[in-house]
Amino acid sequence: MVMEGGDTESCCSSRASEASPAAAASRKRRPKVEVYQEVLRRLRESDCEEACQPGFEDQLWSHFSRLPVRYALDVNVERAQEVLMHKKLLHMAHDPTTRPAFKARLIQLTSLLSEIGLNIQEAHAFSTTDGYSLDVFVVNGWPYEETKKLRDVLAKEIPRVEEIPWSKNSPVLETKNFRESVQMPVDGGDVWEIDVKRLKFEYRICGGSYGDLYKGTYCTQDVAVKALKDEYLNENVQREFAQEVYIMRKIRHKNIVQFIGACTRPPNLCIVTEFMAGGSVYNFLHNQRGRFDVPAILKIATHVSKGMNYLHENNIIHRDLKSANLLMDENGIVKVSDFGVARVQNKSSVMTAETGTYRWMAPEVIEHMPYNHKADVFSFGIVLWELLTQKLPYANLTPLQAAIGVVQKGLRPAIPKNTHPEIVGLLERCWHQDPSLRPDFSEIVTILLHLSKMVVEEKRSIKRRNIIEGVSRPDDA
């Protein structure tokens, strides 16, 4: 499906090119005026009634003038009628009674995208000179070939886009009950306050209890924006937000999602980080039904362990390590993200109980016992099992049932029989009931690097043996 919409402050997006490199290069050489003239010619040759009306040339040129050159480069002149649709949508977007304006139609594609309960594969967005955005989304997951029901759903759901924090169409909430800005710890660190005017939203990735995650840009850089919902801006939420910013701005590691900045002035509280184009490990395993081979699993586990080792060396406990908080970039680097419940470890080990996510949570945390950085090691063990099996931990149990089983019955996920013995040993050590018997991440990194070399050597040995056997068979015959 393709969805076109407008009148949001989102003004840029990502796209997977449909055309060949040669075709794309050719399109980039065409200036806007040539595209305009070609579209005009094709519309008139097709006996388009609108194109024959007086003043149409000026109207069409005005449409192209409102949009950046990138729009002209992206237009498929063989589908000139689509330009009229875009022109109509932007006209409708001017009227508050008819916006957001959108249209849905069926096209033949294998990879698609959507923001309303579906996955976005492609998004094209073009900002006009007068503050509007023409957005084109390619989506899948719609079970019907006709699009009327989809249009009905869009008409109901798309207005939520206008609820994006500090969108020009969003209501301004009273903030008299809040401080002028969140009080942040001061230690002479670098400048990290975000200039909201340079922050642009593209689309919502996912939502949570207290905030939403968006894809956006900051000073032309692709970013992820974790924006808190206005209605939850109480003192406790502000305190948690301040703690997350305080931790993130102090950490720098290639396996930790990079902190770019934050806006600390209510109601526009947000944290901006680098955008990880590969999405989460959880989404890849459980939503896309993907799988990793053993070398890739060991590589991912090593990345995570290095990031976690860095945190622990800096006395920081993550407290919610799980596959959903492990993000992949376009180069296959995996990074630890989401420090919403992370804490600097104190000497007493007295911290909030039941912090994290039950299926990955260590028994001592579930049981309200004192805990330390070894709770993260337990969670890592569950993640490693998840990578090996592509299954959700304790999938046949509710989260609470799983937590009770972990504490009262020593429940652990079943390890597949064909798992490498050394990986089995590592898993069992990571999720040991006694935290003191779990390895530190520094040791885990060493084990994983050793395992990686071993697996590579085993593969080479098998390949050499197969080559020798392949050469010897004719002689044997």
CA radius of gyration: 27 Å
**End-to-end gap:** 58 Å
Number of helices: 14
> Can you identify the CATH class of the largest domain?
Mainly Alpha
| Structural class computed from helices and strand pairing | alpha+beta
Describe this protein with a few key phrases.
globular; Transferase(Phosphotransferase), domain 1; 4-stranded antiparallel sheet; 15% strand; 14 strands; 477 residues; Phosphorylase Kinase, domain 1; alpha+beta; 14 helices; 3 domains; disordered N terminus
Characterization of this structure:
This protein has 14 helices and 14 strands. It is of the alpha+beta class and 477 residues long. The protein has three domains: 2-163, no CATH class; 196-274, Phosphorylase Kinase, domain 1; 279-459, Transferase(Phosphotransferase), domain 1 (Orthogonal Bundle), CATH 1.10.510.10. The strands form four sheets. It has a five-stranded antiparallel β-sheet, with no helix packed on it. It has a four-stranded antiparallel β-sheet with strand order 2-1-4-3, with helices on both faces. Helix 2 packs antiparallel against helix 3, helix 9 (294-313) runs antiparallel to helix 11 (374-389) and helix 9 packs antiparallel against helix 14 (441-476). The protein is globular and about 80 Å long. Mean pLDDT is 77; it is low at 1-29, 106-117 and 161-180.
